[in-house]
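Bug report (template v2)

What were you trying to do?
Predict the complex of my protein with calcium ion.

What happened?
Run completed; filing so the output is reviewed.

Input:
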Amino acid sequence: MTRKPLVTALIAGLAVSAVSVVQAAQPNLSAELREKAKAIIQPIEPAKIEHPAKVDLGRQLFFEPRLSMSGIISCNTCHNLSLGGVDNLKTSIGHKWQPGPVNAPTVFNSSLNIAQFWDGRAADLQEQAAGPIQAQVEMAMPHTLAVAVIQSIPGYVETVKAIYGTDVVTLDHITDAIAEFEKTLVTPNARFDQWLKGDDKALTATELEGFKIFYESGCIACHNGPNLGGNSFQKIGVVEPYKSTSPAEGRAAVTKKDEDRWYFKVPTLRNVELTYPYFHDGEAATLEDAVTLMGRLQLGRTFTDDELKKVVAFLHTLTGERPQMPLPLLPPSGPETPRPDPFK
Amino acid sequence: MTRKPLVTALIAGLAVSAVSVVQAAQPNLSAELREKAKAIIQPIEPAKIEHPAKVDLGRQLFFEPRLSMSGIISCNTCHNLSLGGVDNLKTSIGHKWQPGPVNAPTVFNSSLNIAQFWDGRAADLQEQAAGPIQAQVEMAMPHTLAVAVIQSIPGYVETVKAIYGTDVVTLDHITDAIAEFEKTLVTPNARFDQWLKGDDKALTATELEGFKIFYESGCIACHNGPNLGGNSFQKIGVVEPYKSTSPAEGRAAVTKKDEDRWYFKVPTLRNVELTYPYFHDGEAATLEDAVTLMGRLQLGRTFTDDELKKVVAFLHTLTGERPQMPLPLLPPSGPETPRPDPFK
Ligand code: HEC
Ligand code: HEC
Ligand code: HEC
Ligand code: HEC
Ligand SMILES: [Ca+2]
Ligand SMILES: [Ca+2]
């Protein structure tokens, strides 16, 4: 537990400031908590769209099942934008109904994370997007074939030409456009953000008390920043070891350092109401389960039923406005477009 | 071939009128063909929306993966509205990656068909919609569980209450809303329709000649009405038997009459560019293949390469404007919402 001085120091620091919050007069609780909160959590701001044409192309590609070997799996299959940017499965189902190794994280607000994937093995969204297209348990589509498919669709070639100034489609065009689209997938205006920005009425008393517990008990040590997470790698099982049958070993897979085993990117708590089940292995079915475990494993703390209810109520206030968008219409295949092969 | 006098008579009738068309002076070809065409093909008209609230609910349900046992299959998986309302697979892939028995027809303009499914076993869209939810090879979701899922989602209960005036969700509500939504999935304003409505410039000379061949050779005997099909059951293999390994026996499955074997609902040719592969078994990969076979099997006619090219060019003019719609945002699951089970 002492291996990460930053975390420990933060938790200790919070424990001190927590005392003063508890002692604050009730009428000022909201205002006082807000000042502390604002120091470590920032509201989600609406997306600034720099390249509208790239965003439109990226949206098409995000919904493009022809990027998969089977012809029926798109990014949106596992990161359903009609839901919470997830599939709500313990671990994802991909090509040929193969179960993936880990739970699919949301694409909402993922641009705010320090790195992509549970173990952070992709530096950014563009690097990330190349992965699932080719992964055997996801879309199972060799990159050369994915590029050939897009190249064979006249509507795409025209768009790529207009944006990138070339007739020759590359994987970089595909992943660049997808990444630009994903940057627009932010969820501003959650009730918690309204409260952060000064609206005392945005939260109920129960929700505010829930945030107080979240803040004071030390959750905030790891779940902070605009995403309430996503900005550091932390061990699951700081106080008590986490038991999992999942083969995922976390950050160690990237750093090859044994001491990084069980370190995962702290997931965002934004829209956490929508992103069940929880943890990298999807083993926590409900927010109640996840919060109970977090208390015990990370902080050695057992919440009372009342505390648990309040923390969960607070977490529900992190549901923001999901991006509204047109259903993209995809350009027709050309005569040479390679056909899907669901059993390959 | 004599068993259906209507078809035979129609083909004979067309053969006669065809002569006069061929003999017409070139400048009048377009106008003269149009008069004949208008007598048997009608343009697709934009949808009249009678119940906007039902349409919105139906759109949500059409995109709702929680209506499937796995939690990842929705109507839109197989009838992808970003594409041609189809999955472009030979036969669909459903729950646990099981292949379905037949090719998925488009949901675009399906409200104009006399009945639903290749064998017409559902009278209308509402009756149809109950099928795939429960079908083991599609969504594999018992109706009671599908209804329980919707009943458990507060946002849906609210909407059902507002539309149907009750708190108790039924399967009828679900299928009624889906059907109302599907009625809006029409594709007006195809270039062929613009031509039908009087715009001579909407078609190229090649396309117009293609239509002339389509008309004169007798395709129009079965592919007529606003959907260029969808309004009768016809035998595949009128002149020459169709060879298929598919177990589907067509209309006989409904009527239990042996003489109805190999009778299928004539598919619409609207948007046929987008609905590859072709036939109930998906065995024709391209429009060239489908048209060649139709000529031989249905009419005993072998097209020249030039004729084939022209007919296919004409078929491409049947691509209409696909419906533009917002991506629906689905209401969050409630605490009691049954969880998916992809391996059940
Ligand atoms: C078959 C399911 C599946 C498909 C298809 C899929 N993903 Fe994922 N996605 C996952 C899973 C599972 C992870 C977590 C993998 C890991 O961390 O090792 C993930 C991780 C991500 C992440 C990282 C988020 C974060 O915060 O770490 C992003 C971004 C993402 N996917 C975007 C995409 C895009 C873009 C596509 C399409 C090109 C796509 N995904 C296709 C299942 C899928
Ligand atoms: C020492 C760092 C740390 C602390 C303290 C901490 N967490 Fe976490 N939290 C994590 C990590 C790491 C994960 C991901 C673990 C995994 O998936 O294996 C996580 C996951 C979660 C999840 C699941 C999110 C998801 O989408 O899967 C919830 C909910 C959560 N934490 C809430 C809390 C609460 C509430 C507290 C305080 C009681 C807390 N956390 C304290 C690091 C921490
Ligand atoms: C797993 C793939 C799959 C799913 C999921 C699916 N369908 Fe289908 N659909 C098919 C296939 C295959 C057929 C043809 C079946 C037949 O004719 O026997 C079909 C036929 C239809 C038809 C008939 C069209 C016509 O002209 O005959 C309609 C309408 C339809 N589906 C709507 C829906 C709706 C609504 C849902 C969701 C509730 C849905 N489908 C889910 C594959 C699917
Ligand atoms: C006697 C009736 C009849 C005639 C004449 C006829 N068709 Fe068809 N057509 C059908 C039937 C029935 C099917 C569906 C067969 C099946 O799927 O088993 C069909 C299917 C098709 C398809 C595939 C559509 C799809 O979505 O699968 C095309 C294309 C087509 N016809 C074009 C033509 C052309 C071009 C002609 C003239 C050369 C023609 N048809 C003549 C009855 C007819
Ligand atoms: Ca999750
Ligand atoms: Ca087809």
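What did the reviewer find?
Residues A 73, 75, 77-79, 92, 94, 100, 102, 104-105, 107, 110, 113, 116-118, 125, 128-129, 132-133, 138-139, 178 surround heme C (ligand 1) (CB under 6 Å). The mean pLDDT of chain B is 93.
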